[in-house]
Hints:
single chain; mainly alpha; Serine Threonine Protein Phosphatase 5, Tetratricopeptide repeat
Amino acid sequence: MKYIIITILSLNLFACGVLSEPKTEDWSANKIYEEAKDAFEVGDYESAIRYYELLEARYPFGKYAQQAQLEIIYSYFKYEEPASAIAAANLFIKLYPRHPEVEYVYYIKGLINFELHQGILDRFLPIDRSQREQMAAVQSFQDFSELIARFPDSKYSKDARQRMIHLRNRAAQHELHVANFYMKREAYLAAANRAKTVIESYQRTPSVPHALIILARAYKIMGLQDLSDSTLDILKLNYPNHSGIAKIENLVAN
Length: 254
């Protein structure tokens, strides 16, 4: 809460400073937009944000309003202010659901959360990193899914699909790491449940054969030989040359 209050106060003071800055007092909407655009194009995103916010405050219904609201999303993103970027994106979608560039806004939302998942945008986010990355991965997948569902022929769809594959693979890897952790702790039932999640929810990911090995091993250690054998049969059928097959066959049950 303290962080949010400080941020809001800082933004208000910042906006007041811009609005009262003498050199901008007589600027037209066109002048402010041109200054914002110039800053945007040279990568001075801090100044771009300042001018876009000034434009929106002074001319909220002017002819540059929509474009400014669109461009400020990317400016926030590049300035490493993901929360502001996502908030601006959500507002744009709500206000202009039929805008020609709204598909881009859906895409940039997914991209922001994708980079949060990657740990790239860690600045000033008061959430545990591992928790944030998992939440961001789920949200990014949903954002890209919505983009593809609404705009299947979008120029952003191909990249969105590739990122969704990556996110799905990473989610499966996460479950697999947890399963391995439980195996090391000899929590075999918990390990088996995590391995089953990989097999059932993340089919056709590279983690599946490893999950089958963990599941077969956990079943065997717990004395559930029939279940271990059936799991091993699935592994042999789908991954006949996997090196883990012999290890499971040679494992002596407790």
